[in-house]
Amino acid sequence: MWCTFVELAALTWIVGVQGHVIPAAVPAVVTRFEDYDPHPQYSYAYDVQDSITGDSKNQYETREGDVVKGSYSLIEADGTRRVVEYTADPVNGFNAVVHREPAVVAAPVPAVVAAPVPVPAAPIGIAPAPLPPAPAVAVGIPPPHHHFSCALINVQPKWLSTR
């Protein structure tokens, strides 16, 4: 035990003497100045009219400096169109006006029904007798390929057996 302690102490002293401290790298500070636009401007719009899904919506928005104006519309679940017109500026904040337009329902077109065409009845014939059902095929686990017996076998060493 004493030898193990001495070896461990010697190894610790060797590593401590030979160990070097490597200073950590200091990350470089990158400063990036963003261009400031005192009068930002943008404008965008989109319009969706999908005849397959019935989706109908649109939006447009413009910005001139600190004033944003726009509107959007969509079809509600009840078929009415909701139109929202909004403005935002530093003086009045965000203001929205919501309008609802009634649903546009197409006038029903009367369906033209043709007179039924008489169809002659099929002749009554004699059908052949149905076939008997096929016998059921049993599908199961195949029998084992090896034989195993759990019978107890009494085996004694020769030195215990009587002659």
What share of the residues lie within helices? 10-25%
From the helix content, strand content and strand pairing, which structural class follows? mainly beta
* Mean model confidence by pLDDT: 78
The shape, in one word, is: flat
The rounded distance between the terminal residues' Cα atoms is 60 Å
Q: For the report, how would you describe the main beta sheet?
A: 5 strands, antiparallel
Low-confidence spans: none
Question: SSE string, helix = H, strand = E?
Answer: HEEEEE
Order of strands in the sheet with the most strands? Answer: 1-2-3-4-5
| Approximate strand percentage | 25-35%
Give a count of the beta strands, DSSP E runs of length 2 or more. 5
What Rg is obtained from the alpha carbons, in whole angstroms? Answer: 46 Å
What is the number of helices?
Answer: 1
What does this structure look like?
Residues 1-19 form the signal peptide. Keywords: Cuticle, Repeat, Signal. InterPro entries: CHIT_BIND_RR_consensus, Insect_cuticle, Insect_Cuticle_Struc_Prot. GO terms for molecular function: structural constituent of cuticle. It is a single chain. The protein has 1 helix and 5 strands. The chain has one helix spanning 2-18; strands at residues 41-49, 56-64, 67-75, 81-89, 93-101. The chain has 163 residues and is mainly β. Helices cover 10% and strands 28% of the residues.
Topology summary:
Blueprint: H1 2-18, E1 41-49, E2 56-64, E3 67-75, E4 81-89, E5 93-101
Antiparallel strand pairs: 1-2, 2-3, 3-4, 4-5
Gist?
The protein contains 1 helix and 5 strands, in the order αβββββ.
Features of the shown structure:
about 160 residues, 5 strands, mainly beta, five-stranded antiparallel sheet, about 10% helix
